[in-house]
Write a structure and sequence with these properties.
This protein is mainly α. It has 15 helices and 2 strands. It is globular and about 50 Å long. The structure holds geranylgeranyl diphosphate.
Length: 293
């Protein structure tokens, strides 16, 4: 299978399983369930679940057993975006070319939809616990840690508290390692943990995920300056206009592009011990560095 065929296949699987899980949630009060679905199916790239499935496939041939975890990562990601868009945070009316959750369902329902997605994520994973309780618990601990104060929420707090202040490069790296990088890292590591990776393999995959996460964020900042607003589904130039700390505002476009290519290469090098098995992850890393949205 080519990279695009395999990517499409994995995205289709994620969508199928997310729909299956959401059918179960349909018994809950309609506005919240509708709001959960709205954000889950609003056109996300599904990077975190795809990374998780691919990391698992470094060890096992079929990713179906880990679909609850793949979907859980997308639910946590969707929750973070809903809350990030709220008036109390970024106050964004638009995401992926569509009105944001609070614009459609109101603020209270958007808060609850985010909370519900976060809880549902852990519910669907815990249901698989009897298959391999030890690996399930380790993978969940990794995901919970990355989503909370030590990871994504911690990064969001640094971001909000540093608004209007110019961060230096090392501070910017810490911010993004937590805000964006932690969940990306948890996607790779939870897939590897569930696949039975040993300590040395986990160390290499952690380095891969950290470099991949940095490249992903730098590309996001470059797209905000150079990207096409119709393709991105949001106005560009947002970061530069405000007092947002981004790689481009700190280092300029040329240096940011150089770093993007350096971190992409480093991430690919970190996969060397997996040989031919890492072909999809290698190509995916390159593909995302060249993405247009
Ligand atoms: C509110 C708890 C809480 C956390 C918010 C992740 C986050 C923290 C905010 C999102 C805002 C943002 C622009 C973060 C940078 C990371 C990033 C590139 C997010 C978008 O991820 P993609 O590109 O999104 O995977 P899609 O739309 O493809 O799902």
């Amino acid at each position: 299978m080519s990279l695009t065929q395999e990517l499409e296949h994995k995205i289709k699987l994620v969508n199928t399983y997310l729909k299956k899980y959401m059918q179960r949630a349909a018994a809950s009060p309609p506005p919240v369930c509708e709001a959960m679905e709205y954000s889950l199916f609003a056109g996300g790239k599904r990077i975190r679940p795809v990374l998780m499935m691919s990391a698992y496939e470094l060890f096992e041939s079929d990713c179906i057993p880990v679909m609850p975890f793949a979907c859980a990562l997308e639910m946590i990601h969707a929750y973070s975006l809903i809350h990030d868009d709220l008036p109390a945070m970024d106050n964004s009316p638009l995401r992926r070319g569509l009105p944001t959750s609070h614009m459609v369902y109101g603020e209270a329902m958007a808060v609850l939809a985010g909370d519900a997605l976060l809880n549902f994520a852990f519910e669907v994973c815990l249901e698989t616990a009897e298959t391999d309780a030890s690996r399930t618990l380790k993978a969940l601990a990794c995901i919970a840690n990355a989503s909370g104060v030590h990871g994504m929420i911690g990064g969001q707090v640094i971001d909000i508290s540093s608004e209007g202040q110019k961060l230096v490069y090392d501070q910017l790296k810490i911010l993004h390692a937590k805000k964006t990088g932690a969940l990306i890292c948890a996607a790779v590591l939870s897939g590897a943990i569930l696949g039975g990776a040993d300590a040395v393999q986990l160390e290499s995959l952690k380095a891969f995920a950290q470099n991949f996460g940095l490249a992903f964020q730098i590309k996001d900042d470059i797209l905000d300056v150079e990207g096409d607003s119709a393709t991105l589904g949001k106005p560009t130039g947002n970061d530069a206009q405000g007092l947002k700390n981004t790689y481009v505002s700190l280092l300029g476009l040329e240096k940011s592009k150089y770093l993007l290519s350096e971190y992409t290469k480093k991430a690919q090098d970190n996969l060397s011990m997996f040989g031919e098995k890492a072909k999809f992850l290698l190509e995916l890393t390159q593909f995302l560095a060249a993405r247009e949205k």
